[in-house]
Design goal:
single chain, alpha+beta, Neuraminidase, 2 domains, four-stranded antiparallel β-sheet, 3 helices, 15% helix, globular
């Protein structure tokens, strides 16, 4: 009798095993399908501009930029990401004419400089501080802090105030200055080998963090984010916005100005994977990003392949309700790998991750179209 009982259990065990293997397979297929859908693999982008844009030849990889107080010029961080060994640079883009002209900013010759995100802080006394993420090597990342000055003829000069480093700067991407020497930065991935980074993107693992440096010490103030990218602080210093590229949304945090700590309070879904966030003088947000993550990966591997881009303006009414308006959309023919957009009085500049191209646009606010 006991042997017969064991034989009768085997078909049941095999059936349960088949069930669970099939369940896992179906779940995996569903998850991969969801990831492909969320990445926008099948989305077509129709060209749209709320105004008129002209392409301007630029230093390679104008990935991030910020408009100077007064709006007469923009600072642009440039890095040839197809030649990681190439020295990057900072440029002033004169906006007194359209198109404007680029002027290189002299940096300390001994400084290895490979910029990524950047941010400006205008102090009450009129001084302007520039914070730039610097990938000095594959393993060492710093934040360079400069004091920016403009001569009477508009020629830019910077004084390097110093470099900030921390073990918490795992792979910094975006930065938002909160003071002359304080800032927030995003790590777009967790620590680990390259295969782990690929697994994070494929499985949408939430290993990104936000780090706050108060001028002396760094600490993690937000965790559990999937590919944290751009970051911005509100004008009153009470709110921090973080772009989650993989989740295709903006995350909202309430900020404690005294400690710098963050408390997540909400999120705003977007029709693309957001890259950088920029705030204009009226408090509106300008968010650039990638509607098709797979096309962007293809563009990163091969510059001949096109990658669609979009730019949205996000404003809020008196009740705090967000209004999303499309300002720019392109399938990748005008510019590929759109990464940042800055706006001042109807002038919109759009940068890219890899291309030696920037767009200089004149907006017509009446042509902005709402996104439901």
């Amino acid at each position: 009798m006991p042997p017969r009982s064991r034989r009768s259990d085997k078909p049941l065990q095999r059936g349960l095993m088949r069930f669970w293997w099939r369940f896992i397979l179906v779940a995996l297929i569903a998850y991969v399908g969801y990831t492909i859908w969320l990445g926008g693999a099948y989305r077509n982008i129709e060209p749209f501009v709320a105004g008129q844009c002209i392409a301007v030849a630029s230093p390679p990889g104008p990935e991030d930029m910020a408009i100077l107080p007064g709006g007469h010029a923009a600072i642009i961080a440039s890095q040839d990401r197809r030649d990681r060994g190439a020295q990057g640079g900072l440029y002033l883009y004169d906006m007194t004419a359209r198109p404007g002209r680029f002027m290189p900013i002299d940096l300390p010759p001994s400084l290895p400089f490979h910029p990524h995100g950047m941010s400006l802080f205008a102090a009450p006394d009129g001084q302007v501080f520039l914070h730039v993420i610097n990938h000095r090597s594959a393993e060492r990342h710093t934040v360079e802090i400069f004091l920016l000055q403009l001569a009477a003829d508009g020629t830019p000069t910077v004084r390097h105030r110093g470099s900030v480093s921390s073990d918490l700067f795992v792979h910094p991407n975006g930065i938002a200055a909160a003071g002359p020497e304080s800032f927030y930065l995003t790590n777009d991935r967790g620590s680990g080998p390259r295969w782990m980074h690929m697994a994070e993107n494929l499985l949408q693992l939430s290993r990104s963090t936000v780090v706050y440096h108060d001028g002396r010490f760094a600490r993690v103030v937000a965790e559990d984010i999937a590919f944290a990218n751009g970051i911005e602080v509100s004008a009153d210093g009470g709110t921090v916005l973080v772009a989650s590229t993989l989740w295709r949304m903006l995350l909202t945090y309430v900020r404690d100005p005294s400690s710098g700590m963050l408390l997540r309070t909400g999120s705003l879904p977007l029709p693309f994977g957001p890259d950088n966030i920029r705030r204009d003088g009226n408090g509106s947000l300008w968010v650039a990003g990638h509607p098709n993550a797979f096309a962007f990966i293809g563009h990163a591997m091969n510059g001949e392949k096109e990658s669609p881009g979009m730019v949205l303006r996000i404003s809020h009414d008196n009740r705090g309700v967000a209004r999303l308006q499309e300002a720019f959309a392109d399938p990748g023919t005008l510019i590929s790998g759109t990464s940042v957009a800055v706006q001042h009085q109807g002038r919109l500049l759009i940068g890219a991750v890899f291309q030696p191209t920037m767009l200089d646009c004149q907006l017509d606010a009446m042509q902005l179209r709402d996104i439901n």
